[in-house]
Known about the structure:
Elements: H1 2-23, H2 28-32, H3 44-62, H4 79-99, H5 102-105, E1 108-112, E2 118-122, H6 123-147, H7 157-165
Antiparallel strand pairs: 1-2
Helix pairs in contact: 1-4, 1-6, 1-7, 3-4, 3-6
Amino acid sequence: MKDYIRLLYAYNNWANQRILDTCEELTQEQFLAGQGISSAQPSIRDTLVHTLSAQELWLARCGGVSPTRLLDPQDFGALALIRQYWDQVEQHTRAYIDAVEENVLRQVMEYTSTKGKPFANLRWQTLVHQVNHATQHRAEVALLLARLNRSPGDLDLIVHIRNVAG
């Protein structure tokens, strides 16, 4: 299980970096424009911050802390700020994944949603969920980037395995 989780998180970081690298090509106006897939994340910036926030939130929950709110996209006016913060979250994520024991991955993890509702899931399931959640939002950003003639290219897991992890 731990090797699977490591692979997923290495892939997650690789795919996130490809999206962020492609976002470097955008103007500030394109980055902040309200062209998103959903009203919850109306811009590329907002969707990236949501994805980053979810990674940080699930990592905190794995550590026994249940945050009560997500990051505010308004605090990230530039892509550089998102990258800097994400690098820190990624370092903490890698440290957690490297340190977590196999038996801990199979334990039930109790946490409270940002709305105060209690939940319990196996820890490995929540870790896999976070990568899956990020994949959904990367796909949304990739679509927006493609509409701006800035496709991030192939983000499939198998591409990561063949070219990076292989």
